[in-house]
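User: What would this chain look like folded?
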Amino acid sequence: MNIGDAARASGVSAKMIRYYEETGLIPPAARSGSGYRIYAEQDVHMLRFIRRARDLGFSVDGIRELLSLWRDRDRHSADVKRVALAHVAELRVKIRELEDMASTLETLAASCHGNDRPDCPILSELEAPSADFPATGHAQRAGAPLAGTRSR
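Assistant: Here's the prediction, encoded as structure tokens.
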């Protein structure tokens, strides 16, 4: 089947299939005499695996590790479980960060009158240096970025 057929059958866009091939996540597709990619049913099966892992929030590197374990018939299930639980821990951190961001924004929104006047505490807080952010019920160190942001 061609890339369009493989995309439809797997639920992975043709663009992402090309990207996964470029990054080495999947092996290069076989090619027809005219240079078109050709996919077999086992390729579609692998693409479905990747799509499901992406749906669960795994990074490309995480999927690479899962694919390696999936292909290794001598794997230990403990290794697969370790990868899954490490991802759960990462998701829990992200959930806490998102909850902190939502709470901070709710607090800022509550301080805004939302009227016709131009002054807005939300914008004032966003423009302030990070050390100047007021306590919003979240423990933040002076100079620490807002939850969910990364310092550069």
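The longest strand covers residues 30-31. If you want, I can go into more detail on any region.
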